[in-house]
Structure formats: structure tokens, C-alpha cells
Amino acid sequence: MGLIHNFLDARGTPLEQQRFTWREVNTQPISKLDDDAFTRVRIILMNGIEVDSLRLQHFGARFYKELRAPLAQVRRVEHHQQTTINWLLSSDHSPLETTIAYEQTAIEITAAVAQNEPDPYQAQTYRFGLLEDFDHLYRYAAMLDRLEGKDANNILQSYTDIFPGRPTTDHHRAPSDDLRDHYDSRNADLITKIHAAMITAAEYQTHDYYMNIGPQFADPVARALYAEIASVEEQHVTQYGSLMDPGETFLEKWLIHEAMEAYAYLSCVQQEENPRVRAIWERFLEYEIGHVHLVGELFKKHEGRDPAEILEGPLPETMPFKSQRDFVREVISEEVDLRAHGIDYVPKSQESEATLSYREQMNSDGVPAEEISAGYIWTPGTELARRPGYLS
Amino acid sequence: MENQPKMGMNYTGIKMSPFDSRQQTSASDKHRPDIQGSIERYAKQRQMSVRESERIGSVPIPGSARGTVKTSFEKIKGKNPEVLIDKLGERLAFERTGVRLYDAMIAKAQALGEQEDVVAQLIRIRDDEADHMERVIEAMERMGADSTALTPCADVSGVSSMGLLQVITDPRTTMIQSLSALLTIELTDNAAWELLIELAHEAGHDEIIPPFEQALEQEKEHLRIVNQWMKRGLQVQMIAE
Hints:
By secondary structure, chain A is an all-alpha fold. Chain A has helices at 22-25, 37-63, 68-86, 95-116, 120-148, 153-156, 190-213, 220-241, 250-271, 275-303, 308-311, 325-335, 353-362, 368-373, and strands at 339-341, 344-346. The A-B interface holds A 28, 31-34, 90-92, 94, 146-151, 153-154, 217-220, 222, 380-382, 384-385, 388-390 and B 52-58, 93, 96-101, 103-104, 106, 123, 126-127, 130-131, 133-134, 137, 147-152, 155-156, 158-159, 161-162, 165-167, 169-171.
């Protein structure tokens, strides 16, 4: 694979050569024990991005008959890319362990994005959501420990801290306080558009995952915790989705999404330690560049616009896949008490009546996140290593 | 919640729908499979996967850390010491999950109004399991192994425990149904401690055996108690009005 300097000059694989077999998509999984946690983070991220690609392309087909054929063709490939990627997760990950990995992905990727985002308001939004995903990790870690007797750090591999963030109890806001201001597509940087599409995709996947697995738990507190946190993830999808300019046309959004996919795969290729997995990222990077060109041609044909208007210029600096511990700690110390009122970030005392009333209603029968995590301190080898006695 | 099994409208068997079931069965007999062969094809695919698959993972080398030069097994004697470490990791994981299963069982027993001595006994067994956990940790740390690491057998043990966890934590399952799951745990515990003691001896680590032998004696007692509860509970159900 040659060096890629910008989206428009890279060649990519033509769509008609993007083919699979059932054997190929049914990938050999990674090792939960021996693969680096960031390999798992990349898998989860790219699965989320691919499923969002399907989502976007299905919505487009609902509105644009003339695009249905190319949408269906690209979507079929994206779907099999998604399968290949998602099947990399081995079955010895319990649903709760996978959940820990999902929250690690949310924290580390959102933190990386927040630091790389040039628009200060968008960066603030990522920092705001980050502290809530950070708290989710703490509550789920308590659940994993107290329900299954397992140590979340076997998944986190000491890359990500486990302590309370902005309390989940306070995440529950009225819908009007989850909507954010959006970038102006005419003058926003490409990386701003890429970030918004990426993090929205990641949170949407997380929401859907929790909604799917929540009812599979027999434990009543686990069921309740997933119901609560899935609701917050829906809030996060609302929040991040509202960062995007609704004035962008569908084709513009599709083009940005394909560019985002290529950007994400390139970031994966550059940092993947597992050679078998890296080969998948390399192959799919070429596929996405092919998609970028295909959508670019549709952009010209149907809107009479040049894709260079959106994609011109050098590639944005790729996203780091590494522990963002120091940054996260800094944000917690400075912003954990921040709240939202409309599109503004405000101190606790300035939350809206609508949010206070909604929160009071939702929390009126108890808060699952509080019930499971009361007194919980993460300890290597689980809480039992610190407090082995019954109800101690 | 009722503890006693009751007769009711369970729809799962064919005798609930004799007419529809006859029609369904004759339709299956009439419409032959479109794909020739047998379940053997399934077995062959599985065999292919087993031959092609990588293993679950590896046992961490004592003293190694990310980015550092790996050290040798200095404190561990014998050939293939990773076999013992792997099984110690498994025992630790099983005991740790066992403590949490007993936490769930105690909560259920209290909610169902079980006798105080039953609850007290459950708590004692639970605390024994926590103590067993600590013995394994001590043994591993003495050998220079990382007791917080997930060994391959520990990981697999976690998978096999998931079904037991679902049974015991389900608020709908009765004491007897939950005791059935506990029985599986205690039977496994007994067999596993025996094997571990033999393995430690063969590996030349007799120094870790005495606390394990005490644990095994306690597990025999746990098994006897759980068995007794099961029998008593089933007898009560058999004669209930």
C-alpha cells in the first residue's frame, strides 16, 4: 500500500473488485488475553463506523430514488466489512466485558478527538460527553466485579482509569438540553466534520449494543443498569449528532462519512500491532478510498459540485490510539461539575427546570447506577482482594 | 414467588397442540431436506475450525511487563510451570466468581424467607470461598506469578460459569433451581482442588499444598451441605399439598 497524502489522489480499490467469501467474513477472532487492548478498541470503533455507514446509506435510500442503486452496492460491501470486523471479537468476552471495552473505546477515542478538534465549542462537547462515558465505565466495572467476580482491568490493560466521573445520576437531562450548536459546513475544517461523524457513529453503536444485550441479563440490577445507561447513550447520540450541520446535503454527508471511514482505517493501519488485523485495515482502507471516489462522482453528477470543495487539502493528522489518562484526569478535575442548559455549558446551579424535573421523575424509583456501585473502589484482582468479607 | 413447581399452561411440548403438531410432523416427513447429507457435515466444519484456530491465549511470564525484557521462571520449579500457573489462575477465577454466586444466593435465600441457619451457612460457605481465593493468591504470588492476570484456563472457566450465574441471579428461579447450580459449582470445586493438589505435587511445589488440602476438606463439607439441602427441598416438594 502506498503513502496517502490526501483523499482525492489516492487510488483505492474499485467497487467491482471489492469481493468477499463467507469464509473471509467469518474471521478468526483476536485473543482477549494476548492482543493489545487498543486492537480491541480499533475493532469496536471500526464496527461502529461501518454500522453507521449502513445506517446513513439506508436513510439516503428512503429519500433519494436515483441513488438507491449505488447505495445498495456500496452498502453491501460496507456490511461485509462490518461482519469481518465485528467477528474479530472472540466469544470468551462476556457481554459485560465487551461493555467495558466499549466504554474504553468511547473514552480513549473521544479524548483523542477532543484534543485534536480545532473548533473550541465542538471540543468542549467531546470533553463533556467524555466524562459521562468515563463514569459509565466505573459503574459497569462495579457491575462486572460484583456480579461476575471479574476485574475490568483484564480488558482495560491498565490504559484507562476506573473511578467516578460526572455521576450517571446527573446525566439524565431533558431532550432540549442534549442538543448542541452545529458547525457551519461552509467554513468548518474537514477534521471537525470527520470527528462529528465518527463520535456520533461510536455512540450510536454503543446505544444499540446496550439495548440488545440489556434484556439478556438475568440479574435484575444488571438489566436496570443497562436500561439506564442505554438511555444516556441515546442522549449522547442526540448530542453528537446535533454537532453536524443539517444544511449539508445527503451526498455531502455521504462523502464526509466515506472520508471519515478512510481516515479511521488509515489511523488503524498506522498503529495496529496484530499483523493479521492490520491486513484487514489495509484492505478496507483501499475499499473506502474506492468509495470516496465513487461518491465523489455522484456528487459531481447529481449536485454539480466538486468533491474537492469538501475534501481538498492534505489529510488531517491521524488519530492516536493510546492511553489518554493524563488528559482525562485533567478534564475531570476542571469540568466534572459542568452541566448543560440548551446549547450552553453551565455550572450545576444553572440547569434548566425541564432537566431537573425530568431527572427527578426518572430517578424517583431509585438509580441503578447508584445501587450497583455504592462504596465501590476498583482494586487489582477485584474488590474481593481489598474487602473479602460478606457485605464488607 | 412460589418455590413449589406448579402445573400450568406450559406451551412448549407437542401434546399441547395435538392437531397442529400432527400436521407439522407430516409436513416435515413430506418435504425432504434440500441439502443432502447429515449432521456429519456440521462436525466436519467444526473439525476444520478446531484445526485452524489459534489458542485462547498464553500464561503471563512471571516478572514480565509491557515493554520490558522478559525474565525467566526463576522462582518456579519443574518443567512447563505454566501448566500449574494456568490451573492456579483457573482456581482463583472460579473461587472469585463463586463468591459472587454465593452473594446472589444469600440475597435470594433471605428474600425467600429461608431459615436463619440456612442463610448463616450460606454466608459461611461464601466466606470460605473468599478465603480459598486468598490462598490461591498467596500461592501464586509466592511463585512470582501475577494473580491479577487472566490465564487461559481462568478465561475458559469464566465462560463456563456464565450459565450458572444466569440461573442463580435470575429472580425467577427457585431455591431448588439455584441449589442445582450451586451443586455444579461444589462438585467442580471438589474435583478441581483434588487435581490442583496432585498437579502441585508433580510440579514439585509441595509447599503450597497444605492450605489447598484444608480448602478441599471445606469443599467436601460444602458439597455435603448443598446436597442435603437439595434432597430436603425436593422431599418437601414431593409431599407438599
